[in-house]
Design brief:
- This protein is an alpha/beta fold.
- The protein has one domain: Spore Coat Polysaccharide Biosynthesis Protein SpsA, Chain A (Alpha-Beta Complex).
- It is 34% helix and 22% strand.
- It has 9 helices and 11 strands.
- Strands 1, 4, 5, 6, 7, 8, 9 and 10 form an 8-stranded mixed β-sheet that branches.
- The chain is globular, with a radius of gyration of 16 Å.
- The model has no long low-confidence stretch (mean pLDDT 90).
Length: 203
């Protein structure tokens, strides 16, 4: 998909779990690879993964994938620094998907529906909605919001921009995969209870 790109934010430190959740294996596939694959398989022109503390580990998990890496050396200062670090990667793009590396259950079909919706509507931000809650990924016309993106600080994600420009937002129907992320031991237990096989990486 020409002039469409994806930024996967993968610089977090997994403080609550005490190990890198992005290299956790679900049915043999790492969380970060699962989070990245829908964009690659949907034919997005370029996919960028923003890394932080565990850069080498994440690069190993994505070896052989057609992704670019941006290392965010300021990741300790909050999520906004990862979005800002990816700004050079966004140059020339008409639309950019923003996704979180710890959300492994977004499907290719969701990505394709968002692309179709983006092309057919004048709205500049597409957001999945499930059970009244905003989810991921977010597809945004970065040309329109570049200045606001550049001014993000701390743990401000794109939520501030979405809320400030609510007139530009079009919601589409999401699903559980739009919301589910891996933050706690309870999240991992819930996956095991649903029949998934979970393994820690051997890196």
């Amino acid at each position: 998909m020409k002039q469409l790109r994806a930024v996967i934010l993968a610089a977090g430190m997994s403080r609550r779990l005490g190990f890198n959740k992005l290299s956790l294996k679900i049915n043999g596939e790492s969380v970060i690879r699962m989070a990245t694959l829908p964009f690659l398989s949907a034919g997005i022109e370029k996919v960028c993964v923003v890394t932080g503390m565990q850069t080498e580990e994440i690069e190993k998990e994505l070896k052989g994938s057609y992704v670019e890496f941006v290392q965010n050396r300021d990741h300790i200062l909050g999520m906004a620094t990862s979005v800002v670090a990816a700004i050079p990667f966004m140059e020339g793009a008409k639309g950019v998907f923003f996704h979180l590396g710890d959300k492994p259950f977004v499907e290719k079909d969701m990505v394709l529906r968002m692309i179709d919706t983006y092309g057919e509507n004048k709205e500049k931000i597409i957001v999945p909605l499930f059970k009244g809650m905003k989810g991921h990924p977010v597809l945004m016309d970065v040309r329109r919001y570049r200045r606001e993106i550049a001014l993000l600080t701390g743990d401000q994600g794109l939520r501030n921009i979405i809320e400030k420009n609510s007139q530009d937002v079009l919601f589409i129907e999401g699903n559980q995969g739009s919301l589910f992320d891996i933050d706690t031991v309870e999240d991992i237990v819930s996956l095991e209870e649903r029949g998934y096989v979970i393994e820690k990486s051997q890196h």
